[in-house]
Known about the structure:
Blueprint: H1 7-43, E1 49-53, H2 60-76, E2 80-84, H3 91-98, E3 106-110, H4 113-120, E4 131-146, H5 155-164, E5 170-173, H6 179-190, E6 196-199, H7 203-211, E7 217-221, H8 222-230, E8 235-239, E9 265-273, H9 278-291, H10 295-303, E10 307-308, H11 313-333
Parallel strand pairs: 1-2, 1-3, 5-6, 5-7
Antiparallel strand pairs: 3-9, 4-7, 4-8, 4-9, 4-10
Helix pairs in contact: 1-9, 4-11
Amino acid sequence: MFPGMRPQNYMKRRKNMKKLLTATACIVASTFMVAAPQVQAQAYPNKPIRFILPFPPGGGTDILGRIFAQQLSEQVGQPVVPENRGGAGGNVGMEYATRQAPDGYSIVICSPSLAISPNLYKKLSYKQEDLTPFGRVASIPNAFVVHPVVPARTVKELVALAKRSPDKLNFGTGGGGTSNDLAARYFIGENKLKILIVPHKGVNQATIALLGGQVDMVVVGVATSAPHVNAGKLRALATLTDKRTEAMPNVPSIVEAGFPWFQVDTWYVMAVPAGTPPAIISRLNTEFNKMLKMPAMLKKLDDRGAIPVTSTPAEAEKFVKDQTATWAKVIKDAGVDRL
């Protein structure tokens, strides 16, 4: 106590000083909380980014993922390293992504499996909520293709052939839980056909089997099938779209073919582990939307039959939820048992 100061005045000044220090600390803390995400976003990225591809090499996810990874690397000035983690219809790669640190240095490109798996599997090693979608990027129309030895040139002819010869045809797919596998089961169920499902480790492997005559038909992206169709190695019966595609202008849409309910495309959404800071999510969304407006990037996507799509993080999240509800209905209508 200073000389001449009364005890009560001393105590009063101590209380006032304590309040002042507390208020100052709160102001500093709140300022730091506001500034921290901004500083974090400005510093990001300062090291290589892992780009997880949940399917084997050669398929649409792998091809597009590597295109996006290369472009993102050029934009942010850091290596973006593609990493294939295929298996279980994309679930191995997505589960792997959920176990990475939520710091923006692990990105996963998701396909319809993200919306299918919660409806198909009784037990998953991850939850859909463990990933945070931050943007839609592309959509690839699918084609219904057969081996040239199959004596059917239209979808209706194929249905008639399958009914005349039950259990004689087989349908190659990318494995349980993939959109093309469920599409095959949906088509078979709705038409009351007896066609054997032959699953593979990925739709690219199913397409290779189709080229080798080991399976009779496959639902696969136009980017993968168009070169083989143009070369006469495969025959496209229809594109699973509402109208014809530029990649296959001479092939009727599934609506023209008389099966409007069988429209199935393969979409792609970018995601990060849940808990990734909002500032980094916003930065990534901005970078991907920016690249999807670049003429050179648009040409690369077009060359592979992909249609560019942009969105906000909120729109991407809603899209995944809507797709989850859509695939729940498909799985139910197809009578597919949960795995």
